[in-house]
Write a structure and sequence with these properties.
Layout lengths: L1 E5 L3 H12 L3 E5 L5 H7 L1 E4 L5 E4 L2 E3 L10 E4 L6 H10 L6 E4 L5 H9 L4 E5 L2 E6 L2 E6 L3 E4 L3 H16 L4 E3 L3 H22 L3 H6 L1 H20 L9 H11 L6 H7 L10 H10 L5 H21 L1
Parallel strand pairs: 1-2, 1-6, 2-5, 3-10, 6-7, 7-8, 11-12
Antiparallel strand pairs: 3-4, 8-11, 9-10
Helix pairs in contact: 3-4, 6-8, 6-9, 6-10, 6-12, 8-9, 8-11, 11-12
Length: about 300
């Protein structure tokens, strides 16, 4: 396959890098200031078994002059979705588009720019950017792909096969909305608490007070999902939150890492989105709103101090 990845960060770098090394033609689109270093050194994946994979793919600042792409994958932070979609629209590309991102509502943002439907992916792989061109892979886990149209489902199936050949477990689901919401509920319960308290995932589980808070937030987010008639991928999301926190015991969540690095977080698309969508379901989500506002306060203080 000939695949363009918009974003060579944690997930984009991991997926695109392994696909490139398994024989697919991968083009990475990144911010212009990152391109010289990526071209010079390639993309390095520090794998869980302590090996390092160097990826010498094509790195560009735009999708201009690219033809015959089989797929575009958007793998940027949720708040950069519209900007990434504009790269595709500007290049007038008509290939299928898959969003491999966290958060709720990114499909609508991409579709508003592209004026067509997109597919969605949700991954449980863990990775983080150490510095430009270096991705530390914490763990390889299953990725779910899905869409509403048959054509996009076929594209998801082809992409899933390519991922599996590259060593990334992947499946196509007809309930991608449920998968997205399941991940959002987990993130809503772990990420803001870990961020506000500067705690690793497992530490939240060990402390009886934070464990109770995680359960309360998960229950509230679950209530919102039920009010919107979302069928989740798990029977008990509270237990799933505890399971994920235990499995990722030593990890600092991505929201916390963004704050520590002085970057914007994705809380608008997690707790903020759940709070906003609660009104649509004729319910409320005061815990999600409170966590959203507290993280946004911390984020604004951090960004202001850096400026």
């Amino acid at each position: 396959m000939k695949i363009a990845f918009i974003g060579a960060g944690a997930i984009g770098g991991l997926f695109g890098g392994l696909l490139h090394n398994s024989g697919h033609e991968v083009i990475f689109v990144e911010r212009e200031h990152k391109i010289p270093k990526l071209i010079l050194n390639g993309l390095k994946l520090e794998m869980p078994d302590w090996s390092t994979i160097t990826v010498k793919a094509t790195f560009k600042a735009s999708l201009d002059d690219l033809k015959n792409l089989d797929l575009c994958v958007i793998a940027v932070k949720a708040y950069d979705t519209s900007s990434a979609a504009r790269h595709i629209a500007k290049a007038n590309l008509r290939c299928p588009v898959i969003l491999l991102q966290n958060g709720l509502g990114v499909e609508e943002e991409a579709e508003n720019v592209l004026n067509r439907a997109v597919a969605r992916g949700v991954t449980n792989c863990g990775a983080m950017v150490e510095e430009i061109g270096i991705v530390k892979v914490k763990g390889i886990a299953k990725t779910l792909l899905g869409a509403k149209s048959e054509d996009l489902l076929n594209a998801c199936s082809e992409f899933a096969d390519a991922l599996k050949e590259a060593g990334l477990p992947a499946e196509v689901t007809k309930n991608i909305e449920g998968a997205v919401w399941t991940k959002a509920i987990i993130n809503s319960s772990i990420n803001p608490l870990g961020t506000l308290l500067n705690m690793r995932n497992g530490e939240l589980l060990e402390n009886e007070h934070t464990k109770t808070l995680m359960a309360m937030v998960a229950a509230e987010s679950w209530k919102v999902a039920l009010s919107l008639k979302i069928k989740l991928e798990v029977d008990d999301p509270i237990e799933e939150v505890f399971k994920v926190a235990k499995a990722t015991y030593n990890n600092k969540n991505s929201m916390l890492m963004d704050i520590l690095r002085g970057k914007r977080t994705e809380v608008d698309y997690i707790n903020g989105a759940i709070w906003r969508l609660s009104a649509k379901g004729l319910t409320d989500a005061p815990l999600n709103r409170a966590l959203y506002l507290m993280v946004k306060t911390l984020e604004s203080i951090k960004l202001k101090s850096l400026n």
